[in-house]
Amino acid sequence: MSEKDKSSAFGVFAKDYVPLPPKNAEVFTTACDYCTVACGYKVYRWPVGKEGGSAKAQNAIGVDFPHQLMNTAAWVSPSQHNIVRHQGKPHHVVVVPDKDAKVVNVGGNHSVRGGTLAQKCYNPENRTSERLLYPMIRVRGTLMPVSWDLATEVMADISKYIIAKHGEHAWAIKMYSYQYFENTYAITRLGMTSIGTPSIAPHDKCANTNDATGLDDAGIDSFAASYQDWADAEVAFLSGVDPYETKTTLFTTWMMPGDKKFIFVTPHKTMGVAWAEKEGRGMWLPIIPGTDTALHMAIARIVIENNWQDQEFIDTWVAKQWDVDEGYGRGTRNTGWQWRTTWGNWQSDWEDYKKFILAQEESKLDVAAKITGLKAEDIRKAAEWIAKPVNGKRPKTSFMLEKGNYWSNNYMNTASLSALGLICGAGNRPGRMISRGGGHQRGMMGAGGGSGWLIPEKYPGRRKKDFNLDRWLMAGEIKFAWVFGTTWVAAMMASQALSDKMQQLTRGNPHQISNLDRAAIFETLKKRVDSGGMVMVDSDIYPCVPVGTEYADIVLPAATWGEDNFTRCNSERRLRLYSKFYDAPGDAKPDWWAVQKFAKKMGLDGYDWKDSNDIFEEAARFGRGGVLNYHPLVTQAKEKHVKGHELLRSYGTEGIQTPIRVRDGKLVGTQRLHDPSNNWGEMEQAEVQSPFMHAFNTHSGKAILLKSPWKFAGWIQFYEAVKPRAEKGEIWVTNGRINETWQSGFDDLRKPYLSQRWPYPFLIVHPNDARKKGIESGDFVQVHNDTVYVQTGQPQGVLDADLNFNNLMKDGHIKTTEGQFVAVAIVSDEMREGVAMANFNFPGAPANSVVSAVPDPVTNNYRYKLGRGVLTKMGESPYKHSFTAMSLKPRNIV
Amino acid sequence: MEKQIVTMHEAHDEHEAHEGGGRACMSRRQFLLSGGAVITLAAVPGGLTFAAQALKADYPKVKIGSLSALKLGKPVTFAYPYPGVRNILVRLGAPAGAGVGKDSDVVAFNQQCTHMGGPLDGTYKDKHQVLGPCPLHLTTFDLTRHGMVVSGHGTESLPQIVLETQGDDIYAVGVLGLIHGYSANINGRRS
Questions:
Q1: Nearest to A78 among B55, B156, B186 (CB)
Q2: Which of these CATH numbers, 3.40.190.10, 2.40.40.20, 3.40.640.10, 3.40.50.2300, describes A717-880?
Q3: A688 CA to chain B: closest CA distance, Å?
Q4: CATH number for the domain whose boundaries are A26-130
Q5: pLDDT digit string (tens) for A829-870?
Q6: ipTM attached to this prediction
Q7: Strands of B106-110's sheet, edge to edge?
């Protein structure tokens, strides 16, 4: 039964047998736990000892083994099998992509991540045995097992004290925004509705802001497109992303077939780029990090000068001066958006935008080529591909953006891309869309509430900024922090400086718990918080480095994918049920359950859920009118007297795309947002027509063209400050993901096969950069940045320039720190020279340590991709000459 | 077990310029001094371990070629352990896990992608000792590291055909990893 016993003939994971499910195996539908695409999967479960046979009639896969079937998911690989407990008894499970899938991963296509999902299930015979099994309290530095009651009572005692004495904003939550509606609803209900703290930030940001902010201001929802749109596009402009590398089946199922052309804007020539080039339908624009805005403006200028714009679309769908002024863009009050759109920097209309582009020095081809490091002829060719009519016919172009774009110059890169896409006629019709590719799945269902008035920061004018949780922690203002399933430290900027502060506030404080008496703990923690310290709680599935392993006073074991019934949407808003199919290990509980337990100890009302379905149904009304609206499904389930989860289960791996509407009594999904064909007029049942369904998400329903002046002080001052300094021998050290490691590798480092593939984080370095430092593939390399800027204090913006980098520096709001990490070099010309790529968020090697923690003053989002550092060879890693671990070959061999 | 049929011919592969003397081959002694010192990394460029002997007991021993007939970087194909199971035998020019020959650089691998069974025939890249990309979804495999996925979506390494030499003769003696389309390489195998 061991997962290990046959895998080590040569010290590598290699089994030559896999059990097949018998005909009568139970079948569950689910979707992948990892990337935003969310392929559909089936889980077969049967008791140990009842294996199926290799003949078609003897197994549930329904084929004869062996077979020669290609490009179907009719095979079970050893990584797709595991042995789990169900009702306490050992059961086999195989988790395989759904070969009958008609959507998403049609025919059972899958990624290496999802293809190894079975290996994430708890099995005490492999490294998943490191799962957290019971609540623990740290006593004199060591975590000791306790009951859920004691853990939550201790939390409630000190929380009540802190909220009464130090205020709600001293009580903080750092949470994932994606790990299922049931959990995110419960957590936000606690934090925002019941406690009413503004101190909440999601996993990937220091503040609760939007991601692709320029798209928002233009009136474009980040997930407006469907996968069909990426298939229907004739040209795909891919900004800061290779979907092959991180959104696999979106690329391999929907984009590779046919004769679509691809323009990849990224300093990393990944496999998708190399493949498209070899096929003769790809172009690689190896851009200098952060300079996309100049590229977008240069392309827009070529389009305008050649009169290639889609004038009919612009006349119909782009807001005129009058439409813009009428609603101040989105027209919301007391948000960053109002500031961004009313002070005149950005909003425009067609005539004004045209004038703006033609007047910009940086939109001139030769100037833009110099800023971006691209060849002028490549920029021109890209403009021709996306917009030049052929035989009078305009190409169908879609624009995808992801983190290389919006995590390097958050506002301007997204604003300028949206404008470029709009003048090319993209935004609301088949094959012509502007959307994010997506990172995590869409699993946020906020309960509403909160207390923005408690935020200490503000923009010039009277408006509050979104709360920056990192800065609040650095200022020592957080007294209690509950971390849900996120790395916090390694995922945020200037990671080492943040980690040092956390250490100082928790383990560095003299008041440490010394026994497990509830009253004694309360006395100790009171002294802790009153002496400037902080109490930390970490909910996770594994010991999280360093928050759970070193700092947290209380560690709570979470139950996750496959261990309860959960729901969420993917990047085309497709809602599915992620079925429970095995027992959570030990005393691990889903996060909603932990929240409920704590809320009851706090004496809060409204936490009487019996199961996750109760939350799914309750949360439905909070998503009404939004992009993830599934309220009609819950309404219909009630009419049918079934649970909401059970009605959704009947939709299997196909699910249904939100927002869900009702026509002739049937639930109808929404393929594409902003599309005029969605205009149904009067709605059935209790639903109302949402204008963003059939028009752009602005006051006027028309999209807004946004200007993006390259020399905008909120950008250019920071960019000049964080660029690599030639005199120090620095190069850009950006960071990113690869297919084989999902986020921090919390599962992958424990999957037998993938942990051999990547036992240590990489740093991909161009041969010319490597040669200067004597670095070869397989060497340990230190990356060191001796000037990492951290914004401190709670600067109040009064005048326009107050929040720009130079003013912050002058006013003493920038602290200079340092950062470093070590990785294993892969020397390959897949990188642009002068730009190295580090493995994002790998435990023990925080690539974000060399990136400055100064947010975009327009949006309060970090510029995560703009790291720099000096590379130094530290010696050979054991992987340099290993035959069993960490291939060092280039990743783009075609 | 089915009767084994062994076929062997020069494969029509796509070749890239070989780096020749540019790549220094490491001696066994050098290897042990570097990678061998780290206990977590098993490395068996030469003789078979006890576990590998156990693996051998399950599989047929079949002559598939000779060292002297192998040309550097030019794969030849053969079937093993059943007809229809297509493999390549190749001298990589760089030492490899479970490699045989005096430079430990002769290896053999199955040619069906472990992702969705795509054909890897004709995809050997001798500049990098890599097989692939698979024409279906672009997976590549590192033949110096037991067929480990370099990039892409195979959920297993490429099954490696374990080799032995007797004088100049090369024998296939086992398979490391499950062949695509099979639930067991050898009938009767149970966990």
A1: B156
A2: 2.40.40.20
A3: 43
A4: 2.60.40.4210
A5: 999 999 999 999 888 788 999 999 999 988 889 999 999 999
A6: 0.95
A7: B9-10, B76-79, B86-91, B106-110, B160-166, B169-176, B62-66
